[in-house]
Amino acid sequence: MLGTSVRCYGPSLHRGRVSGILLRWELATILSAGSTVAKAAFLMFRSRGMRTNNPVLRDKTFQGLFADGERMTMNGTVAKTGLLLVLSMVSAYWTWNRFDTALAGGQVETAIASITPFLWGGLLVGFALAMVTVFKKSWAGVTAPLYAIAEGFALGGISAFFEMRYHGIVFQAVGLTFGVLAVMLVAYRAGWIRVTDKFRMGVVGATGAIMLLYLVDIGLRAFTSMPGIGFIHESGVLGIGFSLLVVGLAALNLVLDFDMIDQATAQGAPKYMEWYGAFALMVTLVWLYMEILRLLSKARR
């Protein structure tokens, strides 16, 4: 797990650097929400049966795949998901420790500069690896672990920065993320949440709208003098309510992912698709973590 020694400097310091980090955080949120915003739009028009919002787990993902040898299993997918999480935590710890070491000298800007290459590198390399994994599923055994490592570098830096501003927030976010994962898995296995066509379409439509809203927001902030869409960033009732909604949507995407992986195992998908399923779950978990981090930061302001 991440270390606890990052110093808390409060939310009011170094606003110039803070704005730069927050913009990278917004970009990370968009990319990690599926690593495939463009792919989502492409597949939405291409496939009639939208079985899950997560673009890497669309209805046609497992069609045409036949297992000549070992077949995909849920247990295998869960084990590989755990491995990806461990890899991401290890690389996140490395970036976190780098930030903390630089911060020991008391220079916040130096600490931020020390992790900036890993933030950008992790985001861009992670996105590229996600695209490769989506289109070359048989490579997932290699690309999925590399994706997890790249995402860890980015998330470690972002997490260390937020820990500096809001002491204890990262461990709350990590705990809530795994808590939500456990609750949704139990709810799915117990049949408390039934995945119907209407359910799928509702989650897909709502999440697609959120992704479009995020793209518009970051476009306004990056290319105009406008501050973006207020309620996405505000800490008032509307802002917190919006974040709760998005966290809920991310959680429902986990249910859709569980359902699709169940269908894949029933269809006898090949063994390497366990890596692909683990990658897809990783994408959703990263998005969920980012949204919980956003929600908690709003509550701290």
Automatic annotation (TrEMBL):
Key word Repeat present: no
Protein name: Putative YccA/Bax inhibitor family protein
One Pfam family this sequence matches: BaxI_1
Taxonomic source organism: Oleiagrimonas soli
Keywords: Membrane, Transmembrane, Transmembrane helix
Transmembrane regions: 21-45, 78-96, 108-132, 144-162, 169-190, 202-223, 235-255, 275-296
Source organism phylogeny: Bacteria, Pseudomonadati, Pseudomonadota, Gammaproteobacteria, Lysobacterales
